[in-house]
């Protein structure tokens, strides 16, 4: 069945589920569940303990006779791993690059930013104020891999394929062949602009091509509704557009932030543009900056606080 985009657990194929969190914006991520004979696999946890606890409660009937024995973290962002501590007794699997990156933004850092006074606190509460980061103990992977890892989940094969660096340094997708389903982590944002923290964009485009080549019907993104290969193609088209347009502006000597504002204004002025209705359009400034940095190692990217300031500025600009 195809999941409607409502919060909760949806069966997308026999014994294969998506846990969805509309509207898919900042922090509102998806997760997945593969139920085998006597054991299950969980794809990602959520951004805080309350949300993860609610998800695990919703999954409880499906795993009553098949407890979660394996947890896969698709990448290092907290909205896909901060709830790990609640999945008791499971082996936690991630790419080696994800395991290395995960401690770089601990929950305490986001808790402090959300609680900060003044402009910085106001900025981060705008993006993450609905989440509670206090009391989270970062639980790191207990098993890592590079490239590819084939798992057996109660007699069901699950293929983990590392496709990063792209969104982050170690992005992984989880392919369930017998269910014709793939969990993409944040290689796919559906209904919102992707954000390319790591890059290069060429790697992310290649990841989209890899997903499109799989024999799948159900594609569960990291954010947004369950989609199909047409959704994959739209994300690929967006990334190719950013790469092309940002590269041209870099070659013309235009500042990265000015280039991002130019592209955001062009999309806003043309409702027929296929990305004009996507949310989180301020992310264009991070994506353009990543193109500049990938093409020129001398390019100095702003720090993360300034990146969020720039995203907020684009989304607050007149005419949007």
Quickly describe the structure.
With 320 residues, this protein is α/β, with parallel strands linked by helices. Helices cover 34% and strands 18% of the residues.
What keyword list fits this structure?
alpha/beta; 320 residues; 34% helix; Metallo-beta-lactamase, Chain A; five-stranded mixed beta sheet; 12 strands
Provide structural commentary:
The protein is an alpha/beta fold and 320 residues long. It has 2 domains: 8-230, Ribonuclease Z/Hydroxyacylglutathione hydrolase-like (Metallo-beta-lactamase, Chain A, 4-Layer Sandwich); 240-315, no CATH class. 34% of the residues lie in helices and 18% in strands. Helix 1 links the parallel strand 4 (40-43) and strand 5 (68-72). Helix 6 (229-251) crosses helix 7 and helix 7 packs across helix 8 (284-295). It is globular and about 60 Å long.
